[in-house]
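Aim 2 progress update. The chain analyzed this quarter is reproduced below.
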Amino acid sequence: MRAILFLFLIIFAFGEEYPKHVKETLRKITDRVYGVFGVLEQVSYENRGFISNAYFYVANDGVLVVDALSTYKLGRELVETIRSVTDKPIRFLVITHYHTDHFYGIKAFREIGAETIAHEHAFEYLSNPSSYNFFLSRKKLLKEHLEGTELLPPSISITKSLNIYLRVDEDYRKFEVKHLCRAHTNGDIVIYIPDEKILFSGDIVFDGRLPFLGSGNSKSWVKCLDEILKMEPKILLPGHGNPLIGKEKIKEAVSWTRKYILDLRKTIRRLIEEGCDVDCVRERINEELLKIDPSYAQVPVFFRVNPVNAYYVYFEIENEMLLEE
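Predicted structure tokens:
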């Protein structure tokens, strides 16, 4: 399956058949849940930054949206896509985490009066000068595609959990907005609909591409994945890749994400114990992980992102080892 996805990515990228509008990727997942799906790549001028997914739930009394995509223009396209499905008010936007491909489109939702919700870590992220420096880097890369984009905080922040209720037919549906743990970032949140067993996981679960481990904590990420399995969702909607439908498919994707993180951590720890410094680890990490599992070579962005992950996790493992002494 991952070999097929990798082949598709190569054909897609070199054929330059990128979506001209977010709506081109619209998929109906259930009677009330829809999604749009970015390409399995790193951000580039050619793909307009459309590399992540966003979802929306159409209730009787309004729409709840999950993530805002990576530019103001893409956010506007997402709003237009929602309007093509329903004219109900867009009431809530939940940002799963403050990475650029998930929150840069927030202004498009502020303009229409939607309440925007994220973890309080968003304020820590935005107060750090590096967030603006990264914005300038994105501007240099995306050029006119980033026009109108602003670094905006949520209007509502959470530390642990928040419940949202929307009317569905003759009843109210509960949306549990939860911070399970530090994982992909320090402020990851998921949205769970217990009555329908639907989980919006953000970037805690990856399917079809390599996760990025440079902003959170790889050790607690593994615990987070275990918590997701305990929830036993029937549909899991990740921040990248295809919808995961059915417990077996979900377990496979969660287990694969877990396996990659553990393989990386175990390998880095062994290399440190052998006397490898951070540069040595970055140089050897692709080869060492391919010895463990050759199929990693078929995962999109593996060769580019895996050494970056190794750089960050090296210092995480090094600190853990110091505390053990």
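The radius of gyration is 19 Å. The domain at 2-259 is CATH 3.60.15.10 (Metallo-beta-lactamase; Chain A). These observations will guide the mutagenesis experiments scheduled for the next reporting period.
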